[in-house]
Amino acid sequence: MSLVPIMSTAAAAALGAVLVVSAPASAATTLGAAAAQSGRYFGTAVAAGKLNDQTYVNILNTEFSMVTAENEMKWDATEPNRGQFNYSGGDRVLNQAVGNGKRVRGHALLWHQQEPGWAQRLEGSDLRQAMMNHVTQVTTHYRGKIYAWDVVNEAFADGGSGGRRDSNLQRTGNDWIEAAFRAARAADPAAKLCYNDYNTDSVNAKSTGIYNMVRDFKARGVPIDCVGFQSHLSNNAPSDYQANLQRFADLGVEVQITELDISGSNQANAYGAVTRACMAVRACTGITVWGIRDTDSWRTGENPLLFNGSGAKKAAYTAVLDALNAGGPGPTTTTTTNDPVPGGCTASVSLNQWDGGFVATVEVTAGSTALRGWRVATTLSNGTVTSSWSSNRSGTSGSVTFTNVDYNGAVPAGQSTEFGFQGTGSGSGLTPSCTAT
Ligand code: G3I
């Protein structure tokens, strides 16, 4: 039998022993701060109409680091008449969030529900054009302000088919989802672009259909950065919840829990299990609950949230907070992010101008920190870009933006990479500005 020596602190000190006591890191006391310890966010859906409710706003400002507009950025709200855009509700939610140091998930650009009446009555190429215009207009309005967009919401059918849901959106052609992602990327290159759905919380026919789509998108270079798992659950998290998140992460996308609410008597345990699953998957970058108090929930009478109707913390709250504080591996991120990167970057241009045309070569130089990606914006007042290389471009004249391609986003501190473009007219007066992404 071996004896394990036990020594008191005093005895150890008397012997001159070095006693290393690793004090537990002091636990964070809010959801947002607890999630931030592992580089994650903790968010909630917010309704603009509740921003005058002081209890609601106090909890929002104290606990959450990410905000999703519950309804205000949807198609019926933002484009009630064709070509007439209304951002009042969405801006209200966004400005409240940003003004209080939070980031915003955009929800949702294209969804078969909450289509405005005029769009419900469209089909075919006319609808496709309206859909793409909607994506472009809304992402342009919010350009640079959205952490991640739910570009397409709930496009897959329930049940065993693993296929697409029928809708007028789907009937415009099977490529409508990738067309939407490409349009969103062109308009706001800094936002992460997500596909979002429900009943996808385990390995099942529906989630596998989505998995196959994401794998295909990644293989063909369709710009997708993340998959949202709504997670409207009852009583339990599925036993393969974490494994399901992980299989998507293994495709090279981030995963986010986007609309979490859980009913039933096992609620606190289930909330803890979902949170631990996200913490255990590196690419799970954050969790959003679908409302603050039980009385704010769309699931009337089911009390599925973390705060009761009076705003008091429930057992489910504590289960989530404890799971966040227990830590886990930090998340991995894709290079497309609008998180500010310390160190920054600079861009300088050298111009070869001739009568009627020009070639501009732009040097992007990393600051004191290595770049993971970069974005260069410039104004071209008297010329038009006809082609560009070593970058992704949005725009041809006026405001033109370039972002890195796969092979030149990573630039070591202090070092440079180049891209270029050519055009007709004049390229003089270019003053490119660089943002690390
Ligand atoms: O604002 C009007 C109000 O003026 C009117 O008097 C009242 C009468 O019904 O309706 C109000 O609008 C309602 C709106 O919520 C705001 O409360 C709509 O009828 C109602 O349909 C709408 O429900 C929203 C639902 O999406 C629409 O499908 C819920 O708030 C919202 O939580 C819910 O969120 C969805 C996600 O976007 C996608 N995933 C599922 C999730 C739950 O359904």
Key structural traits:
17 strands; 437 residues; CBM2_carb-bd_dom_sf; alpha/beta; binds ligand G3I; signal; carbohydrate metabolism; disordered N terminus; four-stranded antiparallel sheet; 12 helices; eight-stranded parallel beta barrel; polysaccharide degradation; xylan degradation
Which regions are unreliable across 5 or more consecutive residues at pLDDT < 50?
1-24, 332-341
Beta content: 25-35%
Structural class: alpha/beta
Quote the average pLDDT.
Answer: 90
Number of helices: 12
The number of E-state strands comes to: 17
* Cα-based radius of gyration, to the nearest Å: 24 Å
> Roughly how many Å apart are the termini?
59 Å
Region (Disordered): 418-437
Signal peptide: 1-27
Domain CBM2: 338-437
Keywords: Carbohydrate metabolism, Glycosidase, Hydrolase, Polysaccharide degradation, Signal, Xylan degradation
Q: Could you walk me through the main structural features you see in this protein, from its secondary elements to its overall organization?
A:
It catalyses: Endohydrolysis of (1->4)-beta-D-xylosidic linkages in xylans. Keywords: Carbohydrate metabolism, Glycosidase, Hydrolase, Polysaccharide degradation, Signal, Xylan degradation. It is an enzyme of class 3 (hydrolase). This is Beta-xylanase. Residues 338-437 form the CBM2 domain. By secondary structure, the protein is an alpha/beta fold. The protein has twelve helices and 17 strands. It has helices at residues 9-14, 31-36, 54-63, 75-78, 88-99, 117-120, 124-141, 176-187, 205-220, 241-249, 267-280, 315-325; strands spanning 41-46, 66-69, 103-111, 148-153, 192-197, 226-229, 232-234, 254-263, 284-289, 345-354, 357-366, 374-380, 383-389, 392-394, 398-403, 416-425, 433-436. The chain has an eight-stranded parallel β-barrel, surrounded by five helices. Strands 10-11-16-13 form a four-stranded antiparallel β-sheet, with no helix packed on it. Strands 14-15-12-17 form a four-stranded antiparallel β-sheet, with no helix packed on it. Strand 4, helix 8 (176-187) and strand 5 form a beta-alpha-beta unit. The longest helix is centred in the first third of the chain and has 18 residues, at 124-141. The radius of gyration is 24 Å and the shape is globular. The model is unreliable at 1-24 and 332-341 (pLDDT under 50). Bound molecules: ligand G3I. Ligand G3I binds next to loops.
